[in-house]
Design brief:
Blueprint: H1 11-64, E1 66-67, E2 69-70, E3 84-87, E4 97-102, E5 118-126, E6 132-139, E7 158-173, E8 179-180, E9 183-184, E10 197-204, E11 226-232, E12 238-239, H2 240-268, H3 272-278, H4 280-289, H5 293-299, H6 305-308
Parallel strand pairs: 2-12
Antiparallel strand pairs: 1-4, 3-4, 3-9, 4-5, 5-6, 6-7, 7-8, 7-10, 10-11
Length: 318
């Protein structure tokens, strides 16, 4: 008597299925983890690039608005506050400290007139953990004399523009076509001179998901990516004496124009006194009905009749 064989899987077949399933799942999980890691790194990289681009935009706007008044020959160099200064303690990327006068300030909406000038400075300050802080300092008031010093990081006008900076520098293009890392418009060599263009570079240390700076062991991570931007300084140094002369000429022209307008107004209208002389009977009749108008007409005698609002029957004066 033979026993009927029931359908099913053998132990070897089951083990083979389990092994194949584990291999497929392991490959899928590894692919997912690699994809998630790549996506996270790309997100952090894009966020870092956006931070760097925002810093470059801020520095570029200030440099594009840089202005400089040339010192008159008779003025003491130490008493002239206008300057463009760039200092490079470590010239790997260019000057790490710059200071200049800019016209990029937005005046407050108030009744008092405010200037759009401000003194701007950028400088690197070392952090306690890693990297540097890029600080932007500004003051809406020009100093009373030449000030070549840079503010401290705790100055009231200082603002941390970027944290975890690996490198920052500004290279400057002179009139002769050479790129330099140092500039001082207060010296005799570059007296009252502005760069033609500037190249701003910055490199930021990586951050984690919470925005904390990641400090890697030396040699274990690639160097931070350096982003750069070239900026043209469109405003050339201005002659202070020429500006004063132009302003005086404009004032004289305005005064002459105002005097001409007043003369035209005086010649183009008829005063109350002149109108009363032309129509004495009409004015006399009005005053007879209301004697109090005599004092009113006396106070309005020098004004144009058409501007007073008077309406006297039989009188046609403009």
């Amino acid at each position: 008597m033979t026993r009927a064989r029931r359908a099913g899987f053998t132990l070897i077949e089951m083990m083979a299925v389990v092994v194949l399933t584990a291999i497929v799942l392991g490959a899928a999980v590894e692919f997912y983890l690699d994809l998630a890691t790549a996506s996270r790194e790309a997100t952090l990289r894009v966020r870092g690039d956006r931070r760097a681009v925002a810093v470059l935009d801020r520095v570029a706007r200030d440099l594009q608005s840089a202005v400089l008044l040339k010192k008159p020959p008779e003025t003491d160099p130490l008493a002239w506050p206008w300057l463009f200064l760039a200092d490079a303690p470590n010239a790997e990327l260019g000057a790490q400290r710059v200071k200049f006068v800019s016209r990029g300030r937005l005046p407050r909406a108030s009744a008092a007139l405010e200037s759009d000038l401000e003194v701007v400075a950028y400088a690197l300050y070392e952090r306690a953990d890693a990297g540097f802080d890029l600080v932007r300092w500004s003051s809406p008031r020009l100093p009373e004399s030449l000030d070549r010093s840079f503010p401290t990081s705790d100055d009231p006008g200082a603002l941390v523009l970027a944290e975890g900076v690996a490198g920052f520098g500004v290279r400057l293009l002179g009139e002769q076509g050479a790129w330099v890392d140092v500039w001082d418009s207060s010296t005799l060599v570059d007296s009252a001179e502005l760069p033609v263009a500037a190249e701003v570079s910055i490199a930021l240390l990586p951050e984690d998901d919470q925005g904390a700076i990641v400090v890697d062991e030396p040699g274990t991570a690639p160097p931070p990516l350096v982003l750069s931007r070239e900026v043209v300084l469109p405003v050339r140094p201005l002659e202070s004496e020429l500006l004063v002369a132009e302003a005086d000429a404009d004032d004289e022209e305005d005064e002459e124009s105002g005097e001409g307008d007043e003369a035209e107004d005086e010649a183009g209208c008829t005063t109350v006194a002149a109108c009363r002389a032309q129509f004495p009977d009409a004015f006399a009749a009005v005053v007879a009905n209301d004697p109090g108008l005599e004092s009113v007409l006396g106070s309005l005698a020098s004004q144009c009749y058409g501007d007073t609002g008077l309406s006297i029957p039989g009188v046609s004066c403009e």
